[in-house]
Amino acid sequence: MKRGSQPAPRVRRESAPAKRPAAFKLFLIRHAHAVEVAVSPIRPLSLKGRRQAALLARFLKRNGALEVVEMWHSPLVRSVETAGILGRDLGLTVPCVEVAGLEPFDPPGPVEERIMAFGRNLAIVGHEPQLGALAGLLLGQGKKAVAIEMKKGACLALEWMPEGWRLCWLITPRLLGKKLPRG
Question: Residue 170's beta-bridge partner residues?
């Protein structure tokens, strides 16, 4: 630089906003019924839970309602088993991935960020109260969260559009029309 001259002013460039994905679907699935802690501390699915997961899979398959490129689940046994039954009974050939941050009391914010970064049709098999909080966060779209309760074996379908999230449908085992035995 010459003596007496001033450096060229720095132009501050704003970083480009993160590109939002085009439309995609998100399926939030609560694990099916599990045995009580007194029966098994790892809480695998009960017979009722295996039937709930199979019933949900039949409904989704019959209606062609679950088209995903990946399925995420928590590391807890009841979530792993629910995801396994759904994948098997639906004939899915997509990756079924254990994802950190999907346990019952994990905050939903980081999961929302991962969903948006993924940006393609996705199923998440998880737990309450986290799934309900995640659905509420997405549907509240930065405003006050909406309260949504996910019953065991329920599936909530959402769709991301450039305008934001919209609720497509919610199905519970009771709505599927079969009374399941206890246990």
Answer: 156
Alpha helices in the chain (DSSP H): 47-63, 77-90, 109-118, 130-140
Given a cut of 70, the residues of the chain with pLDDT beneath it are 1-21, 141-146, 178-183
Paired with 34 in beta bridges are 45
Boundaries of every domain in the chain:
24-176
Going by C-beta distance under 8 Å and a sequence separation of 6 or more, which residues neighbour residue 172? 151, 153, 154
| pLDDT confidence of residue 8 | 44
One-letter amino acid identity for 144? K
Prior bond of 129 cis (ω within 30°): yes
Gap between the Cα atoms of 112 and 71, Å rounded: 15
Q: What is the pLDDT of residue 161?
A: 94
Fold (topology level) of 24-176: Rossmann fold (3.40.50)
Nearest Cα to 21, choosing from 112, 91, 82?
Answer: 112
Place of tokens 């085009």: 22
- Residues 98, 71: Cα–Cα separation, whole Å: 9
